[in-house]
Design brief:
alpha/beta, two-stranded parallel ribbon, about 40% helix, globular, about 325 residues, eight-stranded parallel β-sheet
Length: about 325
């Protein structure tokens, strides 16, 4: 509870953010970067402190496979009232069903049980991350992705949790598999880290879904054109950290540089290379929840509306869909 009191006192302008797509189970937040030895000490508490100082009140921690889903639930228990979890298997990890001891259906049953228990005890607020990703077929074939997307949707119908969905370069197949389940999924959900076309976005909106926006959603001028047209009542904010940061080469950076109020947010925290990490510093190239403020500023800039309007709408949408301990 002390953390929540701190949030109220330190939020810039009292704006409240919910980072609804954040991979806090990733090893980089413990100092590991594809090496057996850490580059620096576990700094997850500092990551969360920076987020709090930026106004981030809630975190929906992404579960991308069975083990990460368990870890996401563990974090929600470690930080009650701040962190909540999703449970599911990412399309790039769908081969885990094929390789699972005892078979894919046994793994699916474990996923179902974990999600149901987490729903019952209040730690799990969405089912996912799952869906299709045809940009990275080197990780898992299209056929296997489609098979286990459909089977996870069957489980989602049983659970009746909001969906946390992934669709990358796969829109037609995504909707072909998803549509037959929709009459039994009244809570719909979020299509996160959206990078598709305007037509694809509008089709998802018409089906009742929300659109998750992060740095990857803002890379190009075309991306910005799409985001401009996302209705505020269907928009949610996320970082997808440690990935999807806003980079100098992205179209979004030009929007930030054109916003005189953005400079403070861009320069707020010291950033260093992981090899030169010091306590209190962000790591260059590792995105984190405090940077959601930049995502919100870009959305406001391209839409031509105030930052407060974007942040308020996104907060209400996220709390309305996922609850996050707010109602």
């Amino acid at each position: 509870m002390a953390d929540d009191t701190k949030d109220e006192r330190t939020e810039p302008g009292c704006l409240k953010y919910a980072d609804v797509g954040i991979n806090l189970t990733d090893a980089t937040y413990r100092g590991f970067y594809r090496h057996s030895k850490p580059s620096h000490e576990d700094d997850l508490p500092q990551v969360l402190d920076r987020a709090s100082s930026a106004g981030v009140r809630k975190f929906l921690v992404t579960g991308s496979d069975l083990e990460q889903s368990r870890q996401a639930i563990d974090l929600s228990k470690r930080y009650p009232g701040r962190c909540y979890a999703t449970v599911g298997v990412h399309p790039c990890s769908a081969m885990s069903f094929e390789k699972a001891p005892g078979g894919g259906e046994k793994l699916l049953a474990q996923i179902r049980t974990l999600a149901q228990r987490g729903k019952d005890d209040g730690h799990v607020k969405a089912f996912g991350e799952f869906g299709l990703d045809f940009d990275r077929l080197e990780h898992c074939s299209q056929a296997i992705q489609e098979k286990w997307f459909a089977r996870q949707l069957d489980v989602a119908v049983e659970l009746q949790l909001p969906l946390f969905l992934h669709s990358r370069a796969a829109h037609a197949s995504f909707l072909t598999i998803l549509r037959p389940h929709l009459p039994r999924l009244p809570r719909r959900g979020l299509v996160h880290s959206f990078t598709g076309s305007t037509a694809e976005m509008l089709e998802l909106i018409d089906l009742g879904f929300h659109i998750g926006i992060n740095g990857c959603s803002l890379k190009t001028d075309q991306n910005l054109h799409v985001v401009k047209q996302v209705p505020l009542h269907r928009l949610q904010l996320e970082t997808d950290g440690p990935w999807c940061e806003i980079r100098p080469s992205h179209a979004s950076m030009a929007v930030l540089k054109g916003d005189p109020d953005a400079r403070g947010d861009l320069e707020r925290f010291t950033k260093v290379k992981k090899e030169k990490w010091v306590e209190g510093a962000m790591v260059k190239g590792r995105n984190e929840p405090s940077q959601i403020v930049l995502v919100a500023r870009v959305v406001a800039g391209v839409k031509g509306v105030g930052l407060e309007e974007v942040v308020k709408a996104a907060w209400e949408n996220s709390v309305g869909m996922f609850g996050l301990g707010e109602g």
